Amino acid sequence: MLRRLPRRIDRITGALEQGRLNINVRVFADEHDRRFATDLLHQVLLAFLGATAGIMAVFLISASGGPEVTPAVSLFQVFGYNLLVVSCILVLRVLFVIFRRQR
After folding, report:
1. Is 74 strand, coil or helix?
2. In Å, how far from its chain's centre is CA 24?
3. For residue 70, what is the DSSP state?
4. Cβ atoms of residues 37 and 60 within 8 Å
5. Number of Cα atoms under 13 Å in the Cβ half of residue 42
6. Which residues of 21-51 are buried (b: 16+ CB within 10 A; e: fewer)?
7. Coil, helix or strand at residue 92
8. Could you read off the pLDDT tens digit of each residue along the chain, which spans 103 residues?
9. Is residue 16 classed exposed, middle or buried when 0-12, 13-18 and 19+ CB atoms within 10 A define those classes?
10. Assuming Cys at both sites, which of 12, 15, 34, 77 could form a disulfide with 20, CB separation 3.0 to 4.6 Å?
């Protein structure tokens, strides 16, 4: 193996000099890398959806007007509170996954 090393180095430097040196590397060749990137994207999307739902819930709760369900509560507020519950569930799911990985 050591006898062939100078010949290999000569071929590598020759290919580099002539611009023919190619390195074929795939970023997500390993299954673990693909799974990590997919899980990370999934968690980012869940966090974004949870935050967006929370902001929309606050806007709906603070909105005045709309059809009244009861004299004190409008339909917009009912939708806002339901959306706030959905937002909390999404954010808690992301937090649960984050803290579960740290063990």
Report:
1. strand
2. 27
3. S
4. no
5. 11
6. eeeeeeeeeeeeeeeeeeeeeebeebbeebe
7. helix
8. 666 678 788 888 888 888 888 877 788 888 898 999 999 999 999 999 999 999 999 999 999 888 999 999 999 999 999 999 999 999 999 999 988 877 6
9. exposed
10. 15
Reduce the secondary structure of 10-67 to three states and give it as a string. Answer: HHHHHHHHHCCCCCCCCCCCCHHHHHHHHHHHHHHHHHHHHHHHHHHHHHHHHCCCCC
| Rounded distance between C-alpha atoms, residue 46 and residue 97, angstroms | 11
CB 73 within 8 A of CB 92: no
Euclidean distance between CA atoms 41 and 37, whole angstroms: 6
Global confidence as pTM = 0.70
Lookup: tokens for 88: 């909390």
Q: How many residues does the chain have?
A: 103
The rounded Cα 59 to chain-centroid distance in angstroms is: 25
- Amino acid in the structure at residue 32: H
